Amino acid sequence: MAKKNTSVYAALAANFLIAITTFIAGGITRSSAMISEGIHSTVDCTNQLLLLYGLKQSKRPPDKNKPFGYGKELYFWSFMVSVLIFGLGGGLSMYHGIQFLLNPHPLGDPMVNYIVLGLSIVFELVSCWFALKEFNAARGDLHWWRAVTTSKNPITFLVLFEDLAALAGLLIVLIFTFLTHWLQLPALDGVASILVGLLLAGVAWFLGTESRSLLMGEGIAPETQKEICELAERDPSVLKVINVLSTYQSPDSVIVMLVIAFKQDLNTTDITTAVDRIRANIKSAYHYAEFVVIQPQTLSKSLEKPALESIK
Q: What is the pTM of this model?
């Protein structure tokens, strides 16, 4: 698991180092923006630990309480990570910035901040490199945006977006630290904290939307549904596939249910044999179709439209 999720461990290490150094720098220079970055990195450390916990839980085998396994644990903890980014990371950064604007005070020597921010950017760039490498390997030839919106494994984009948001936050703090001392306007330090908070809130909203979709039972892509429908209808015993239903239990496990109208001259034994054959063909073609349920049904007038139309 360590090799497969290198980006998570790299992000955890980077955020741990950034949290320590920015909190120290913020305490020395009394910078609201640096404290906000420390909060941000601490929250990210918690996020990585939750993702690792979710990964471990999702690998648990099925039991009598969870006959389909614990795969959705990963989706639940990914959603919780998004909530934490918004509630703790974004909320506390904005609160800290507003408090500083209401009670601004002169800052200390900025050189400490520059050194710490420079080191933090290096740490975050290394983490981004690992995350981007894993993301590109997972997306293949897909455009990056489509890869994010269609991915069933939130780890592939959660860590990357966290790292990019952290890098953007560090750059915001670096720019505003310079402006604060150059213009002698301490209030700009509070503005930087608020901007970092707004950045985190935006990223959290997007990640939360994607994770929520998976948690609520997102199914396989329409194109894949069509392919499965066509595969089943090639069986000589099938009259028509009435519907295809699916839901992801984990990135590597899908429940697929087909409602199929079989030819009327088949007996019970013929239909049972056909069901086993169709199930085996689907599992052979789609390794992630771990559970395939086939429901025979009489073809009625109301269902005579092609199955592919109902999938569109």
A: 0.76
